Here is the input.
Amino acid sequence: MKNYPGKKASALIERDLSVVSPSYPRAFPFAMDHGKGSEVWDVDGNRFLDFAAGIAVASTGHSHPQVVKAIQEQAEKFLHISSDFYHEKWIELSEKLAEIAPFEEDARVFLTNSGTESVEAAIKLARYHTGRSGFIGFLGGFHGRTMGALAFTASKAKYKRGFGPVMDGVIHAPYPNTYRPLLASRKGEGYGETVVRYIEEEIMGRVMPGDEIAGIVIEPIQGEGGYIIPPPEFFPALRELCDKYGILLIADEVQAGMGRTGKWWSIENFGVEPDIVTSAKGIASGVPLGAMIARKSVMTWKTGAHGNTYGGNPLACAAACETIDLIGESFMQNAAEVGAYALDALEEIAAHHPSIGDVRGKGLMIGVDFVKDQETREPAGAFRDRVSDLAFERGTITLGCGESTIRVSPPLNITKAEIDEGLRAFDEAIGIAEKEK
Here is the structure.
């Protein structure tokens, strides 16, 4: 165990405090110098294992040589031309995304600079295509912080404090969280079906008619909300509801997509096809890029209806093309295999720690939920934060999500040996925190 930050990191943090916006939350006093794969080093030479991947962004690991080479080669040609013109990398990336889109119908792609821009594009397209204005989102969801996307975000109230009113027309339903359900199910009814029934009977029946709803925006697996996985009956019932009322199903895959769950898109784990997909984070290995991918029959807007200056940025497109190739060749399969290995290891750890209430995940998107009591399942947020701090002191970087969950979301090329090393530090941190309590 070492004391952080070191001398160089402390000096950088002091400089940061004087000029950088105070709105940024900082998890740890970590000032990065360089990284390789799942390892990162701070400016004082301290090595850490990265179980956060920059919020699931460094999908191919830090500075993968093939991604770096692709960026360098493109940078020597040109850095920018604007979306008023064409270039091959933009087209190549769009072809790759259309090929892996999670629906059989031909796809069309709109490139953005971030996840929240991708969500904004999906909102606009849904209204344009349907001629409707209403939407349904879900409690616990995180979809971004720009004003349209913020209207859907419902993971923390502080994200909206001081910024209202946000975009009108969004009603929130409970997310199908089987570990902490908010609704009462009827006899013989799965909880996923309960949530869909609530949407139809209560939201559509009392608040917003179904034929005025343009889209339902949902994270197939919630990220910021706590790495929550819905029960298997939920998405088939939701898809049926959307078809019944002519509503677009919009899958926000910004965090859970791009191979993280062992499939290209997390919604593929549930056997239904969405109408629109939003992507970002892991799409370009850390270069800012997002995408909104829609069925050809849905992307009906006309020239000039939507656009941006940096859409199809050549550096980002080059990085994304190489990222998609690497994920498809081996990293997605590695996420499935090493993710299953990590999930098994965490379940063994949980058996020895009464503070762990639930371990859940798919691929390398795993959540460890801490509780004050395993029977009441009362969230232990402060305890979770202490565990994360102790793990950091032992050289493993993690991030929290939800009320009391730590996420395990390392780069998709992490090895089993690195998982073992990080989980040893994690296990030790939990034990110390339990003794302190």
About this structure: The first helix runs from residue 7 to 19. The chain has two domains: 7-63+331-436, 81-312. The radius of gyration is 22 Å.
